[in-house]
Write a structure and sequence with these properties.
The chain has 456 residues and is an alpha/beta fold. The protein has eight helices and 39 strands. Bound molecules: uridine-diphosphate-N-acetylglucosamine and calcium ion. Uridine-diphosphate-N-acetylglucosamine binds at residues 8-11, 51, 73, 76-79, 81-82, 100-102, 136-137, 150, 152, 166-169, 195-197, 223.
């Protein structure tokens, strides 16, 4: 039977104390709601519908591109009311899977089991036993263990409150009966809301069996209501990602100090990652890549045997095999380094190609440049790529040697095997194989003395 995933995401999230709707807060760089949306995709839901409300404009602005049916809940009168908004989209012969937009860590296997429990006269309900059930709806069973209904905490008797098995809110049932029960929901309860949970009692009254299943770990069903919980779930999420990487053969010096906010699509063997590394976007790491402490990589392709030393930041760049980057290096977007390139401390590279074996080891800015093979760029070299209006390119051909503290005023070309004397300001193309320098002649003044301090 086809699955319709219905994600409830209209709630306000007051306790986040945020201008952002709760479901747009992120875990692992991805909005809470998108985590749930991806889960729906993973369990092969034929359609995903999202009930949204609070922060409607922002939510659509950020996530409107998802291929989901967006259903606005203008007034928020409870979880049952939220599902009612979608009622005319629910076919009789579909399995409806209810998910919460603020419960991001639910696993595919858990939902698959739940769906399996929802067919014919059976409603699948995900429950969990908590040491502290405060705030949750309690699962009320009879003496034989059969589920009878769910009672919300605010409506529960003292005896019912003592029950530690709670409703996670996640459930699955066929569309036909669900729509029937939705029509029968009433709001004569402590909160004056239409509770989706009342569907359980209605199902039992019709002879339905409530088939409960449970997540492998409690974290799966935890929701985000405040920043504390957001941080806790972030850690839980990151420890999953770290475990997955270690499973794939990565050495993580400390999995508790590692953050992945994206995907490592390609991963070589024997990658080593030191502490406090943040990987974002699409990352590809070759064999034997070593990443030092406090490194940030975003949308980067790192070749085999590359070493990235401490405190380097690489974004939108390609680093060829055997290269060594950092410490304290910054590679900006559209930088492509070929093999065995060395980029050292306090060097910034932007929108530049550097060919095999070239070195830019100290304190330089290389922007809008093409650097050939086996070039040595001396300390403090600057490509002056910007005239205040336009950007211009610098070309340095193979084998050139650029003396320290050189300014290359673009557009300019340094010929093959040319040598530039230290301290030069190069404004015109320089010939191959020659020494070119522009430097005031050094002179020493005869008879010069240091001034002496005047006495008053
Ligand atoms: C709900 C359950 C409770 C369960 C708990 C688990 C009901 C009546 N109670 O309680 O049994 O233990 O979840 O966390 O269902 N939402 C809307 N529109 C609304 C109201 C809520 O979209 O009008 C969404 C929220 O954004 C959220 C989800 O539904 O994603 C749950 O709402 P919430 O207010 O957190 O439900 P609880 O009262 O905590
Ligand atoms: Ca809640």
């Amino acid at each position: 039977m086809d699955v319709l995933a219905l994600i409830l995401a209209a709630g306000q999230g007051t306790r986040m104390r945020s201008a952002l709707p709760k479901v747009l807060h992120r875990i692992g760089g991805v909005c809470l709601l998108e985590h749930v949306y991806r889960l729906a995709g993973a369990v092969q839901a034929g359609e995903t519908a999202i009930v949204y409300g609070h922060g409607a404009e922002q939510t659509l602005g950020e996530l409107g591109h998802l291929s989901a049916t967006w259903i606005e809940q203008k007034e928020r009168k409870g979880t049952g009311h939220a599902v009612m908004q979608a009622a005319d989209r629910i076919r009789d012969d579909v399995k409806v899977l209810i998910l919460y937009g603020d419960v991001p860590l639910l696993k595919q296997e858990t939902v698959e089991t739940l769906l399996h429990h929802a067919s014919g006269p059976s409603l699948g309900l995900l429950t969990v036993v908590l040491d502290n059930p405060t705030g949750y709806g309690r699962i009320i069973r009879d003496d034989t263990g059969k589920v009878l209904r769910i009672v919300e905490e605010k409506d529960a008797s003292a005896e019912e409150r003592a029950v530690r098995e709670v409703n996670t809110g996640i459930l699955a049932v066929e569309g036909g009966p669900l729509k029937r029960w939705l029509k029968a929901l009433r709001n004569d309860n402590a909160q004056g809301e239409y509770y989706l949970t009342d569907v359980v009692g209605l199902a039992v009254a019709e002879g339905y069996f409530i088939d409960t299943s449970h997540p492998a770990r409690e974290e799966e069903v935890l929701g985000v209501n405040n920043r504390q919980q957001l941080a806790e779930l972030e850690r839980a999420y990151q420890s999953r990602r770290a475990a997955d990487l270690m499973e794939r053969g990565v050495t993580l010096r400390d999995p508790a100090r590692f953050d992945l906010r994206g995907e490592i699509a390609a991963l070589g063997r024997d990658v080593e990652i030191d502490v406090n590394v943040v990987l974002e976007g699409n990352i590809s790491l070759g064999d034997n890549v070593r990443i030092g402490p406090h490194v940030c990589l975003k949308d980067a392709v790192i070749g085999n045997d590359v070493e990235i030393l401490a405190h380097s930041v690489i974004e939108g760049a390609v680093v060829g095999a055997g290269s060594r980057i950092g410490p304290f290096a910054r590679l900006r977007p559209d930088s492509v380094l070929a093999e065995a390139v060395h980029v050292g401390n306090f060097v910034e590279i932007k929108k530049s190609d550097i060919a095999t074996g070239s070195k830019v080891n100290h304190l330089s800015y290389i922007g809008d440049a093409s650097i050939g093979a086996q070039v040595n760029v001396g300390a403090g070299t600057i490509t002056c790529n910007y005239d205040g209006v336009n950007k211009h390119r610098t070309v340095i051909e193979d084998g050139a040697f650029i003396g320290s503290d050189t300014q290359l005023v673009a557009p300019v070309r340094v010929g093959r095997n040319a040598t530039i004397g230290a301290g030069s300001t190069i404004t015109k193309d320089t010939p191959e194989e020659r020494l070119t320098l522009s430097r005031a002649k050094q002179l020493s003044i005869e008879g010069w003395k240091r001034p002496e301090k005047t006495r008053k």
